[in-house]
Amino acid sequence: MNPLKRTIAIVCGGDSSEHDVSLRSAQGLYSFFDKNRYDVYIVDIKGQDWHVELPGGLTARIDRNDFSFVEDGKAKLFDYAYITIHGTPGENGILQGYFDLIGLPYSTSGVLIEAMTFDKFVLNQYLRGYGVSVADSLLIRQGYEQLVSDDEIEQRIGMPCFVKPAADGSSFGVSKVKKKDQLAPAIRKAMMESPEVMVEQFLEGTEISIGVYKTRKGTVVLPATEVVTQNEFFDYDAKYNGQVQEITPARLPENITRRVREITSHIYDILHCNGIIRIDYIISKEGKISMLEVNTTPGMTATSFIPQQVKAAGLSMTDVLTDIVENQF
Predict the structure, then answer these.
(1) How many whole angstroms separate alpha carbon 324 and alpha carbon 108?
(2) With 80 as the cut, is the pLDDT of residue 104 above it?
(3) pTM, whole model, 2 decimals?
């Protein structure tokens, strides 16, 4: 460890179904970071097992009192945590609260915003108050399913609709429901991932995803990616098993592209975000732009949306990560 370099922890893993996806993002980030400028370590968190990967295939336990570890007989501290956990505890504010307590700067937004963006239903209600267009939705809590009937869902939300975990990632537990009798099994499936389930109106149109980050240097809104899949929706297989066509930049009219960029920057400011976020939208044939979700720990493998968009913008992931880290100091 060079004392003249900042020491970076790429914090990955987590306790959700996307644990292994997070490990792949960590490897991507590790390849992007400037090793001449930073000492970079991967820290894997799962339940009570927190460990750092050391050279030679060794690992060392993380001391949760101060997020330190021992290497070559010496206790070492991190200067910064780059969080790339998809799901709990890194995407819902829990880990952010811990880092706040020990005074360690990190790459994401703070506790409140992480908790809010993680809960899709809460986020939609919040942003709707700022004039952001979102799909209509209902919330169903585990143990209180009887409070919302299938008939009410059909009348209020309509068919088809999406049933998804309200507080979890977007890769597992999601169903596109076309008939009323499919609601109950879809809700049970979603509740395997989250005790709160959101039933959301189906919006037809072009799906896009767009990254943005802000530093003292200014605002960077990346080129949008158009998502084209033959699957029912952008599910796990579409995301991670290649069953999708990703077109960057998205094939959008200039006026729509400009408006998407404005809305994306505005949402970033409304939420007072930090680091790179990715926002997904549906754009109707009439040009209406509706937000689907905000992802505060977007995937970071070489083929993930953000690295694709950074490349399309003519930027370097290494430089982008350096700007984001140094903005904290």
Answers:
(1) 10
(2) yes
(3) 0.91
Question: Which residue, chain included where needed, has tokens 């404005």?
Answer: 262
Q: How many CB atoms lie within 10 A of CB 252?
A: 18
Of 166, 184, 205, give the one whose Cα is nearest residue 286: 205
User: Three-state DSSP class for 226?
Assistant: strand
Query: Among candidates 324, 282, 240, 254, which has minimal Cα distance to 22?
Result: 240
Residues 6+ apart with CB under 8 A from 138: 148, 152, 153, 156, 157, 198, 199
Cα distance between residue 119 and residue 127, in whole Å: 12
Cβ within 8 Å of residue 85, ≥6 positions away: 11, 12, 13, 14, 22, 45, 91, 95, 297
State how far the Cα of 93 lies from the Cα of 200, in Å rounded to an integer. Answer: 24
CB 165, CB 174: distance < 8 Å:
yes
Give tens-digit pLDDT for 108-131: 999 999 999 999 999 999 999 999
User: Using N-to-C axis directions, what is the helix angle for 120-128 and 111-118, rounded to 10°?
Assistant: 100
8, two tokens: 């970076």
DSSP string, 228-294: E-SSSSS-HHHHHSS-SEEESS----HHHHHHHHHHHHHHHHHHT--S-EEEEEEE-TT--EEEEEE
